[in-house]
Specification:
Distance between the termini: 19 Å
Radius of gyration: 17 Å
Shape: globular
Strand order of the largest sheet: 4-3-5-2-1-6-9
Largest sheet: 7 strands, parallel
Bound molecules: guanosine-5'-triphosphate
Number of strands: 9
Number of helices: 8
Length: 218
């Protein structure tokens, strides 16, 4: 097992109590957690969602904004979060590089997998922005794709919850806690840990997935 991991967390995690935008205290907390990983010799890649700025599916819900446009807006949201994360990591004394799936070279490097590898060799944290660069894909799928491309040994999905259940424990009293499951079981039982595209890709890439609570010690 190599020591390269990709950490995925949602944009909402950055929003704090405001529910939108970026709470720099949370940004700083996450940067500190990432620093701990780096200090333990882990090569870290990061993917952040964009839901604290705009969520494609929701923005397109009433039809005023087309889904493709809404998804591109969401991808731009992930780049905004990426720029912020890059700053927060450098504020902690780490070296970080943001790469984007959609070229916007005045803001960040374009995604080039071989360049990302070079950054890891040099001890840099690499943040991947703009998802897969395509509408209709989630940032979970983007994270799985990038994790596979960089040969990460694990995708760490950092969420706001403690556990994964077979169904929503808030709605169903008979919800069962899932401590471990194969991708086939996740697909068969429709366990909502990531969307099906991301799960299928993770299965194909034999990528280990670990779901953790972002706000508890790992
Ligand atoms: P090494 O050459 O491997 O040490 O990597 P490096 O990233 O330090 O070198 P490079 O000369 O590629 O980049 C220097 C700085 O420019 C870094 O902060 C990069 O993030 C930034 N940079 C590189 N390419 C681009 C780009 O296309 N757009 C933007 N906005 N910044 C870039």
């Amino acid at each position: 097992m190599n020591k390269r991991v990709l950490v995925k967390f949602s944009g909402e995690a950055l929003a704090g109590t405001e529910g939108y935008g970026i709470d720099t205290k949370i940004l700083d907390y996450i940067a500190e957690e990432i620093k701990t990983l780096v200090e333990h010799g882990v090569e870290v890649a990061i993917v952040i969602g964009g839901g604290n700025i705009i969520r494609g599916v929701t923005a397109a819900a009433d039809g005023v904004i087309k889904r493709t446009s809404a998804d591109y807006m969401g991808m731009l949201g992930t780049v905004i979060n990426g720029v912020a994360m890059q700053e927060a990591l450098e504020y902690k004394g780490l070296s970080a590089r943001l790469q984007t799936a959609i070229k916007m070279e005045e803001i960040a490097e374009p995604f080039i997998v071989r360049k990302a590898m070079r950054h890891f060799e040099k001890g840099r944290v690499v943040i991947f922005g703009a998802g897969t660069g395509n509408p209709y894909f989630t940032t979970d799928t983007g994270a799985t794709l990038r994790a596979t491309e960089i040969g990460a040994s694990m995708l760490i999905k950092a969420t706001k919850v403690d556990w994964v259940f077979n169904k929503d424990p808030k709605k169903y009293s008979d919800a069962v806690l899932i401590k471990e499951a194969s991708y086939d079981e996740v697909i068969k039982n429709d366990i909502k840990v990531m969307d099906q595209t991301a799960i299928a890709l993770a299965k194909d890439g034999k990528l280990a997935l670990w779901v953790v609570n972002l706000f508890k010690n790992w």
